[in-house]
Every structure is written in C-alpha cells, then in structure tokens.
C-alpha cells in the first residue's frame, strides 16, 4: 500500500502524463501490481478503495476531465464521493483506458511499480 501511496503522490507532481489518467484507474482497479522486486502491492482495488486513495492523495479534481467528465457535475464537497461517482461513470475497462494503461507502464516503472505478468 505504501508503494501505491508513493506512486499516487507522483501523480500530483509535474511530469505525470495527465492524458493517461484513465489508464492509471484501469491499472489500480483491474490489474495486479508488483514492486520492482516482484512483491505484490495490489491485486486490484475496489472502486470505493480507489476513490478513497485518490482523495487521500489529493488528486486534482480537474483530472476528471480526462475521463470525459465535468468536475462541476460531480459531488463538490466530498472528494471520496467525487471520485467514486467519477469511477462509476467512466468505463474503466474500455479500450481507451487499456490503451492509456499500456502507455503509462513506463512511467509506473519509474515510480517503482510494474504490472504483474498475466494480469
């Protein structure tokens, strides 16, 4: 979990490819993630867990625009609910999300996380 938190902190930093944010959600929810030593750090999070992590990491709500959502149309006061609703409205398993995930893999490797083989 600490590796995921560290990686999410890097999402807020300059250099994160914002247009690949849908891919990040695809990986967090649907893939097994391992650290560089091969230790499992995630077997996939539920939407609620993912929303909680995005809130805790203070991910910019403007990234909802990369999901083709208007942040003004999402719950404004509760960030966890904001991200949960965004996740329910965006097709996380879509071809677009998969393509973004594939493009994000090198960035994630720099953050110390890889997608497990066969996941």
Blueprint (SSEs and pairs):
Layout: H1 2-12, H2 21-30, E1 33-35, E2 40-42, H3 47-56, H4 79-89, H5 95-110, E3 113-115
Antiparallel strand pairs: 1-2, 1-3
Helix pairs in contact: 2-5, 3-4
Keywords:
single chain, 119 residues, mainly alpha, 3-stranded antiparallel β-sheet, 5 helices, 3 strands, 8% strand
Structural class: mainly alpha
| Main sheet summary | 3 strands, antiparallel
For the record, the count of structural domains works out to 1
Assembly type = single chain
Number of helices: 5
Total strands: the figure is: 3
Order of helices and strands: HHEEHHHE
Outline type: globular
Beginning-to-end CA distance, first to last residue: 18 Å
Biggest sheet strand order reads: 2-1-3
| Proportion in helices | 40-55%
Low-confidence stretches: none
Folded structure, characterized:
It is a single chain. The chain has helices at residues 2-12, 21-30, 47-56, 79-89, 95-110, and strands at 33-35, 40-42, 113-115. It is mainly alpha-helical and 119 residues long. It has a 3-stranded antiparallel β-sheet. A hairpin with a 4-residue loop joins β1 and β2 (40-42). The longest helix is centred in the C-terminal third of the chain and has 16 residues, at 95-110. The mean pLDDT is 92.
Give a concise summary.
With 119 residues, the protein is mainly α. It has helices at residues 2-12, 21-30, 47-56, 79-89, 95-110; strands spanning 33-35, 40-42, 113-115.
């Amino acid at each position: 979990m600490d590796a995921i938190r560290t990686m999410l902190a890097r999402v807020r930093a300059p250099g994160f490819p914002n247009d690949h944010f849908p891919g990040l959600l695809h990986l967090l929810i649907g893939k097994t993630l391992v650290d560089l030593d091969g230790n499992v750090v995630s077997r996939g999070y539920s939407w609620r867990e993912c929303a909680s992590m995005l809130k805790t990491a203070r991910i910019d709500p403007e990234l909802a625009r990369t999901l083709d959502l208007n942040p003004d149309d999402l719950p404004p006061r509760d960030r966890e609910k904001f991200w949960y609703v965004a996740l329910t409205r965006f097709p996380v398993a879509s071809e677009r999300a998969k393509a973004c995930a594939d493009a994000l893999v090198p960035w994630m490797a720099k953050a110390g996380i890889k997608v497990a083989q066969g996941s």
